[in-house]
Amino acid sequence: MARFDDGKAPDAMRTIGEVSAAFGIKPHVLRYWEQQFPMLQPLKRSGGRRLYRAADITLVETIDRLVNQQGYTLKGANKALREGVTDAEAPAKEAMPNSHDATTNRPEVVDRLKTIRDGLASAMDD
Hints:
Layout: E1 14-15, H1 16-23, H2 27-36, E2 43-44, E3 50-52, H3 54-69, H4 74-83, H5 91-95, H6 99-104, H7 107-125
Antiparallel strand pairs: 1-3, 2-3
């Protein structure tokens, strides 16, 4: 869980400003995440003041890790949370082949690209 240096108990409720400062996430982003992740529902007091419980803070930490560190989209992070996959690397990174290796290891592709390049160069000379 995020470290708070405010003297409160670890399970104390935190304001949106405190959570924002602890994670380096702007308050408007946290409010947007509340709309995108139905399971993120901090308590709302009179006047709309939000209070994040320990479980909410843990969820914010998980969303932050998935979206900002592992590269998930909001939709992908939402799906991962629903499926309980919260500590794996982003599937897109693992499934994505290195396109550089895919083309440079195929001589026919390189030859075809050279032919196209030469054709374009001669067309520009005309």
